[in-house]
Amino acid sequence: MVPLIQVELDRKLYDEKGDEISREIHQAQIDALGTAPDDLFQIFHPHEPGELKFNPTYGGVDRRSLMVIRITLVHRHSVVTKKGLYKAILDRLAAIGVRADDVQIALVENGFEDWFAGKL
Amino acid sequence: MVPLIQVELDRKLYDEKGDEISREIHQAQIDALGTAPDDLFQIFHPHEPGELKFNPTYGGVDRRSLMVIRITLVHRHSVVTKKGLYKAILDRLAAIGVRADDVQIALVENGFEDWFAGKL
Amino acid sequence: MVPLIQVELDRKLYDEKGDEISREIHQAQIDALGTAPDDLFQIFHPHEPGELKFNPTYGGVDRRSLMVIRITLVHRHSVVTKKGLYKAILDRLAAIGVRADDVQIALVENGFEDWFAGKL
């Protein structure tokens, strides 16, 4: 399966809650996609002020900062499953104080043959 | 629409012109794709010397440094529109002193269902 | 051709072997894909401890650290060629002391029209 999760966020938020954010996104992945608990590949990219550029109201929300979650995933999940993944992530992040308004998710799909994870 | 723009560039250039580069790429996006002015999602990744590796003459150009613009975009635009986007970006960057020879653009497409931007 | 290679790795490993890793991945690309020797576009992202999150045994391997190689490539290569690329990378990295168990590769494909590299 090996989805790859990349999280772009303010360094301050990373320092305060990076491990929690990691755990919650990972649990959302397990719950929504049915991946194994040990199927964990995440990259955190902490950013200095000004590196994440956004508009505060685009899409009719109240955006105060920006966390971008980039997901690379094998093309095999339905639209319903993918929307369920977003909802699971957002609900879990909200529970630790990360507002959905501040989150962008961008998912890109590839094939089974487009991965290597430790063993050929 | 929510294209996601990621810019990989030398820290020196980022410090000197990061905000200008942001503005010009964003205006090019508006002009070439017709996105709303408030549809802004950009991530800047400043790099130390040596992290961006390139050949100075590949493709018959005079490459003195490298700025990589990575674009994630919904699959809906024609080849002509995408080439218009590249030209708009390059013309605007040239006007602020960033040479086209030093730019690489890599675009990846996904679907409408592959995005979340603040609201489900 | 212009494949774009992005390498996410621990800063310690980058400082010790970044240039070697660059050279070996580039030679693997030349050998497996037949790209020109001057077709070099690589971005290194060194990470502090804790930013690369992984499970030590997922997939039945002995994973002690994580290096993620992200490849963006035109859709034109067979599955056999892509697997040959992974093997060439892994063999060359092993020869300089980077264990295959510690490597993840994630490849994403796009079209010829999705690139700009210095000249329209």
Verbal overview:
- 3 copies of one chain form a homotrimer.
- Chain A has helices spanning 11-33, 79-95; strands spanning 4-10, 41-47, 52-54, 67-74, 103-110, 115-117.
- Chain A is of the alpha/beta class and 120 residues long.
- The first copy, chain A, has one domain (4-114): Macrophage Migration Inhibitory Factor (2-Layer Sandwich), CATH 3.30.429.
- Chain A has a 4-stranded mixed beta sheet with strand order 2-1-4-5.
- The radius of gyration of chain A is 15 Å and the shape is globular.
- The two termini of chain A are 14 Å apart.
- The model of chain A has no long low-confidence stretch (mean pLDDT 97).
- Chains in contact: A-B, A-C, B-C.
- Chain A binds chain B through residues 8, 45, 47, 50-55, 57-61, 63, 66, 68, 70, 79, 82-83, 86-87, 90, 100-109, and chain B through 2, 4, 18-19, 22, 36, 38-46, 72, 108, 110, 113-120.
Report, as a whole number of angstroms, the end-to-end distance of chain A: 14 Å
CATH fold topology of chain A: Macrophage Migration Inhibitory Factor
Instruction: Give the tally of β-strands of chain A.
Output: 6
Which pair of chains forms the biggest interface, and how many residues does each contribute?
A-B, 34 and 26 residues
The CATH level-2 architecture of chain A is identified as 2-Layer Sandwich
Mean pLDDT over all positions of chain A: 97
Low confidence ranges of chain A? none
Strand content of chain A: 25-35%
Order of helices and strands of chain A: EHEEEHEE
Q: What percentage of residues of chain A falls in helices of 4 or more residues?
A: 25-40%
Query: What is the total domain count of chain A?
Result: 1
Judged by helices, strands and strand pairing, the structural class of chain A is alpha/beta
Main pleated-sheet profile of chain A: 4 strands, mixed
